[in-house]
Amino acid sequence: MVNHRGSSHNHMRTASTAKFISRKQSPRAIAVYIFLLFAFSIFIFVFNAGNIVEDHPAPVISIQSHPQTKFLQTADDELWDAPSRHGLRPCIKPTSRYKAAHGSDRYLTVKSNGGLNQMRTGISDMVAVAYIMNATLVIPQLDRRSFWQDSSIFSDIFDELHFITTLQGNVRIVRELPKELELVPRARKHFTSWSSMGYYKEMMQLWNDHQVIHVAKSDSRLANNDLPLDIQRLRCRALYHALHFSPPIESLGKKLVDRLRMRSGKYIALHLRYEKDMLAFTGCTSGLTDAESEELRIMRENTKHWKVKDINSTEQRIGGFCPLTPKEVGIFLQAIGYPPSTLIYVASGEIYGGDARLSELMSFFPNLVFKVTWHEQLRGTADS
């Protein structure tokens, strides 16, 4: 049986094609067609080549038993080698258009808040803000009223001289306000986080009435804004080149790493993010008892500068805003392929729930060492 409909359709398509071919084409049109065909061929080649590069051979794995689950024993080169940079490289040098700020008789004082990592990021933000506002930055004060109640000053944690000299070609930094300005009225300001360049330019109007601006907290989060390239590079210079730890901390850190490597050669440094204040702030109570959940709620309610009080823990967890529990961390590391003998240095503070909750991680990886006890051993060795 002949499909006349299909034959008619093919005849029409053939006739149309013949008509198209018979139409006289200009040399320019032919050149355009050839160029587009060539460009499309190059695109297909690059796309497929990218897939070939990304398609690494799968690591050799073997399944072994464990009381809770099974884990993949991955080859050492997959577990311990440095991750691929994917062609990325450090990019902190200023562009040819960059002009260093010369500083002025206007001063920016800052109280840096949060934990150590948050303070470092906030300080790098304030370096950039001082540059934008053409101000002299006074060495930041560290938060002494936080959950940790740490009385350290800037020079206890960071190499103060290195910070000042490394950035002297960018922003003028001084250790303290001039004596004659210590008692003058200051403009006290909470800079709005995630603000643009224009916001800080507007804030310069404060110089009309004040010689000193005091910033009550340093978490401006400039990394998330569409700032000029040179401002972002300045932040990177401050964060990764200027903010070095103080010599005593550097020395203690080197001893710690040397001791860990002598014991095992390779180790994992793990920050669980499972401290009491972290869970209270985020409202994450999955796996906790009713009494623990209530304790965290009360802590959140009584901490005035935490703005959000009523938090649905289930929604937080579904949204991905909660840290993994110690047990989940154990499952995750095991699934990646780390064997139970792996040495793990737990760098975080006191884990909420104590030994009972840590035992869930230790059931997967019993070879744990802890920050406090390990540091005490190092200090004891140094004293003796």
Automatic annotation (TrEMBL):
Predominant location category: membrane
Single Gene Ontology MF annotation: glycosyltransferase activity
InterPro entries in UniProt: FucosylTrfase_pln, GDP-Fuc_O-FucTrfase
Chain segments annotated as coiled-coil in the UniProt record: none
Transmembrane regions: 29-47
Keyword Glycoprotein: yes
Pathway(s) the chain acts in: Glycan metabolism
UniProt record, GO biological process: fucose metabolic process
Keywords recorded for this protein, A-Z: Carbohydrate metabolism, Fucose metabolism, Glycoprotein, Glycosyltransferase, Membrane, Signal-anchor, Transferase, Transmembrane, Transmembrane helix
Subcellular location: Membrane
Top-rank taxon: Eukaryota
One Gene Ontology cellular component: cytoplasm
Membrane topology of the entry: Single-pass type II membrane protein
Family: Belongs to the glycosyltransferase GT106 family.
Descriptive protein name: O-fucosyltransferase family protein
